[in-house]
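User: I'll paste a sequence; please echo it back and then give the predicted structure.

Assistant: Echoing your sequence first, then the prediction.
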Amino acid sequence: MFEVTEPFISVQPENRTLIEESLEYAWHTLLANQGDPFPELKQPRLTSEQFVSLLAGERGVTDWRPEDSLEQQRKTADNAFEIHRKAGTRHGLAVAMDALDCDIEVTPWYQMDAPPGPYHIEVVAWKRNEPVNQKTAKRMLTRIENTKSERDTVELILAFGLDTRLMFSGAKHKSVVDYDDSATGIMPPSPLVLAPLSVSGAHFHTTVGDDSYQGAMPNDAWCAGGSYFAGGMRMVMSTDITLGART
């Protein structure tokens, strides 16, 4: 049985009918039990999947494709205002293409050695998460056409990405070096007396030192004992190449 915890106060006039007050009470109860959808409702990155297209229409997205992934649709709707503000610029193209998981480099005609004409731009694009095919190329061209300036002509170059990694690792181990050196006599000022120097790679190294120096030694004399270097290195390089095309 439904238990009324607070008195219901109708906003309708006194001549309301019973059915009108019942409907008002039903809507009041339904809305009171709903959670607050804000502020996530108006944020394309956080709102429900069904509401993303509505936000895109509200923000004036002209290049909307249902076949795009949900993540691409969210990024397109989220960046819509910035794309509108920067449309026709290199930054606007970069933001628009980033929503399609693409990195681009834009070269305008005045930075080319032999430009084909004024207001010509060259766009080199890398697809991040999938290989480039004809469908992807057409999708990129559509996005560029909707973002570039109307006077510009575009040459799109689809490139492939190269990802390399270099890793260094090592282990520390106690080492001992064994040697027996001695020096006698009068040493001139600032002498340099060095013991044997040992350099080793990835193996166990032992050094034991027993030095004996006799004679008159000035205060600024410098004597150095045994020194060693040991270490090992393993380098692993992996390359993941996805071939692309040029259009």
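Confidence is low (pLDDT under 50) at residues 190-200, 202-208, 226-230, 232-247. The first strand starts at residue 102 and ends at 108.
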